[in-house]
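Structure request: Protein cueball, Mythimna separata.
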Amino acid sequence: MHCTSVLTLILLLFGLVHSFKWDIVVGGEYGLEFYYEGNLVRKQNPYVGKVISVAADPVEDRVFFADSSIHMTIFSFNLTSMKREPLVTRYSRDYFPKIVYDPVTKALFWMEGLHIYTHSLKPNDYAHSLKPGNYSTHNYFNKTRFYRPNGTVLITSDDLCSDIAVDSCGGYIYWSTNEGIERARLDGTGREVILNSSVHDRRSLAIDQATQRIYWTEMKEFLSQSTIETADLNGKNRETLHYVDQDVSLVYNIVQEMRAPHSLTISRDYVYWQNFYHSDIWQLPKPNSYINVSYKAKKINTVPCKDSWYWQRIAANYKIQDQIHGVSCNALTSLIANNSNSEPVSQSDQSESVCKNYCFQGDCSVSDEIKPICSCKTGYSGERCEVNACQDYCLNGGVCALKENKRVCHCSADHEGDRCEVSTFLLKSIQAVSLLKDMLNTDLTAFTLGKGVEKCDSNVV
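Returned structure:
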């Protein structure tokens, strides 16, 4: 037995190897990086080359990733045993820009050019897909004597695929092109267009089961015009996300070039993305309202990658329990009951999980139905205390403050009024005109005749 395997077995027996908390995983030049609450908690190099795509299993404690070093291989990586397993190998140089996993059908999906491929990871299906033989001359898979499966073409798109996403509740796979967004059943039938609008480049897709919405990025001809868009899963009720850099007081309805969103992923509480040319990781509270609300985005870290514009290297740890909260989804609910690895969650842990990062500006409590309830701080309202009473209240650069629960504006020298709506220059001009008018209406005869001379009551002939 290999020394590493022996060490891992010993650690497992003594309980020294265990899973860890993480929010997102990011692939890079030298393996995987895991982040929790904005902090890097673990770097893991599963002895592979550059990681070009990642996906998370919402049921089991594992992630999937695609590696470009040897024959374009998709691996699974167990976060408890720290073991990797090769699953699919493509004998070509067509990369895997995006892989996704559906826990209901236990199938992997990935895209190559015009094609969307699928491969089942169900034990019986996977066993039958392995063919006896010598894999290669490399000692890369510990002398495994199998050819790895290549996958099956599920869908051929009319245009080059930009990204894919899976709706496990509805049983759909979505894919994007520069001409729009389409979806089909997970067996490839029922194909339909849900968004028909041409853009310069539509780069990334992500689906949020809890809110039943799809998110995507639109890269315009000028990166400074790139946006994050969202809509219902049928393409209706489309909105553009408004967000504010927490370090800059500008509203980004149109995103700055250096922060142009690219690779998207969704968790229970946040929307994450990497920017286009650089690998900055950004975190945005997941909106529950899109109208007249600007949310604060936060830069988490930078993962050095020279080609982040192409790959989808980020995935969130979005567990099934969180995805189905408040949503009727039998397909995912049954997974919790059937998953032998799942453990009962205590009431206190469940309450903490439900409330974590839910209320933006307030305290969270849990109802008898295990639903979060927010008690907002003064000056904030909304279901999640996301609406600031001062937001957009003071005009012309005025600063808003709350005094005895009332909004008060502190205006600049150039403006005044309850909301700083009046220009001081304009007000002074009006006052000057009024004074001049009063002067013109004054009887000036006494000043004309001179001092000591009285005006006659009548003319003397």
